[in-house]
Design brief:
- This is Class I SAM-dependent methyltransferase.
- Pfam families: Methyltransf_11.
- Keywords: Methyltransferase, Transferase.
- By secondary structure, this protein is α/β, with parallel strands linked by helices.
- The protein folds into 2 domains: 41 residues, no CATH class; 209 residues, Rossmann fold.
- The protein has a 7-stranded mixed sheet, with helices on both faces.
- Helix 3 packs across helix 4.
- The chain is elongated, with a radius of gyration of 47 Å.
- The N and C termini lie far apart (138 Å).
- The C terminus is likely disordered.
């Protein structure tokens, strides 16, 4: 860059190497650096970086207080319809798995501690009277045995019971997982079959068929049956009968015969019915005489 002292209205003419010229104030108050920056702006040099603009602060409306969380609704009970015939009602499940899940859930709703003690004592008393030494030391299969109060009663009478249930709970000494529609026991291998859970049957005929299959020819089937005249079905019953006679007659069609029956009051009003196989009504009498 060179300067030529040419007067230009009091302004010096400044020449640059590329042939460009500009005028600078005669008094040269501004520094060369300032002018160089201006020249770069005019002729395509780097533009100064724009200063970031702070976003405008917009006043926001106050947030509304959060609504209180809704209380959880109580768990709904499974809604299964009932089909009805002249003598029976049957709960209708969409699948067999729905039936088993419904029945298994019952145990979690119950505290059977006191019930087990009282029921075991009552059952021991009435079973002891009717069996009266029948097949001492014989094996017993208890169907729908829950936590095993009926097994406890048979043990105290000198028998060797095992119970099955869809949900026997944890740590159960007497009851294993099993389904009374499909017994995992050999033909004619059991001396006594006991149940008070026929009102939880999905297929009553299938249960009776399984009972007669596993029962020895000189064995007995003891069914304690709820009396429908005093109440209706609850949340977990799967079948219900109009009269005791209706259900007893239906059981007999499965190949067993009534030997004896007697009413009882605990844990609910019902009837204890002793069935024998093949119409052998003298099974218990013969065993009593030989004991």
């Amino acid at each position: 860059m060179r300067e030529q002292p040419t007067d230009c209205a009091g302004v010096k003419v400044v020449y640059y190497s590329r042939g460009m010229a500009t005028c600078a104030p005669a008094d040269a108050r501004e520094t060369r650096r300032t002018w160089m920056g201006k020249l770069r702006e005019l002729f395509g040099g780097k533009k100064p970086k724009p200063q970031p603009q702070k976003p405008a602060v917009v006043a926001s409306a106050p947030k509304p207080a959060p609504a209180p969380a809704p209380k959880p609704a109580p768990a709904a009970k499974p809604a299964f319809d009932w089909s009805a015939s002249e003598s029976f009602q049957q709960r209708t499940y969409p699948t067999y798995e729905a039936y088993t899940e419904h029945q298994k859930s019952k145990l979690s709703k119950l505290d059977l501690t006191k019930y087990n003690v009282e029921f075991s004592a009552a059952l021991q008393d009435r079973i002891g009277k009717v069996l009266n030494g029948f097949k001492p030391g014989g094996n017993v299969l208890c169907l729908g045995a829950r936590t095993g109060a009926e097994c406890d009663a048979f043990i105290k009478l000198g028998y060797f019971p095992i119970g099955i249930d869809l949900n026997p709970g944890e740590g159960n000494r007497y009851v294993v997982v099993g389904d009374f529609h499909d017994l995992q026991y050999a033909d004619q291998s059991v001396d006594i079959v006991y149940t008070n859970a026929l009102d939880h049957a999905f297929d009553l005929e299938k249960i009776v068929k399984e009972v007669t299959r596993v029962l020895k020819d000189d064995g007995v089937f003891i069914a304690e049956i709820v009396d429908p005249s005093v109440r209706g079905p609850g949340d977990y019953e799967a079948i219900w009968w109009k009269t005791l006679g209706d259900v007893i007659e239906r059981i007999e069609k499965g190949g067993v015969t009534v030997w004896e029956n007697e009413d009882f009051e605990f844990p609910w009003k019902g009837r204890q019915v002793i069935f024998v196989k093949n119409g052998n009504r003298r099974v218990l009498d013969t065993k009593k005489a030989s004991s």
